[in-house]
Amino acid sequence: MRRLSLIALLCSTLSLGAVTGCSLLDERQRDWIFQPGDRAWGGSAASAEGMDEVWIDFDSKVSREAVRLHGLWLENEPALHTGAAQAPILLYLHGARWNVQGSAPRMRAMQQLGFSVLAIDYRGFGKSTAELPSEDRAFEDARAAWDWLAARYPDRPRYIFGHSLGGAIAIDLASKVQDERGVLVEGTFTSIPEVAASMKWGWLPIGWLITQRMESIRKVPYIGAPLLVVHGSNDSLIKPDLGRRLYDAAQEPKAFVVVDGGTHHNTILRGQAQYRTALHQLFGWPPAGTLAQAGE
């Protein structure tokens, strides 16, 4: 999510609510919050080279239409691990604006931590079905990808990861399934209304008009797997306090990691060593031998 889009939401929601119907208000918010499109940033498209394309087809109960999701698959070769025949699998759920190719550098960072990674585009992003996203549709897309992984890799441990807006989608998924080995979120929040309240125009009384609420704070207590919450200390878009509040609301076992100097965009790269240590302490992965090889 971009700061300008949320400020636009704050400044415009009241006037929109006064002069338009609920349907248009909902559509405008969905567009502002998700910012769907086929965009990748910087060299991220080049980073996706060599990854396998994945297609996930299902019938949506939300839209009552056939849906096709596009994803990227990055396998982790067994030779990269110590004492592991097959790497655990991470479902990567990206944030707003950028398509799945924009997640390629973060996918490779997770591969370096020992995971095989599947990242998907929600409806409205990249090559996935062209449809305006909503929280219900994104939640359904994540569940479809999770079920796809379960059907194809039933014997491999699976983890859920979400960055920014994807963190809310990850928490929703984790609160509904029982077969995840662990959950990781980075740079995410308690709810969309609380993100709006933390910004410059947060004093405006628009919380009740927000339709895409993403209320992770209410769902996180229902996660039964270990939870790792990571935040950059210099994240100016999603305040670290929101990540801390989310962590506080979760049940044990859990861990909260603040990456010094990390921003909303570079925390996963800047905090690679902290990630590796936290993953081992909370999930027992990567194996101890991998930590030793990394000099940690």
Automatic annotation (TrEMBL):
The keyword Transcription does not apply. It comes from Pseudorhodoferax soli. Residues 89-193 form the Serine aminopeptidase S33 domain. Residues 1-17 form the signal peptide. This is Serine aminopeptidase S33 domain-containing protein. It comes from the Bacteria. It holds the Pfam family Hydrolase_4. Keywords: Signal. The keyword Ribonucleoprotein does not apply. Coiled coil: none annotated. InterPro entries: AB_hydrolase_1 (IPR000073), AB_hydrolase_fold (IPR029058), Hydrolase_4 (IPR022742).
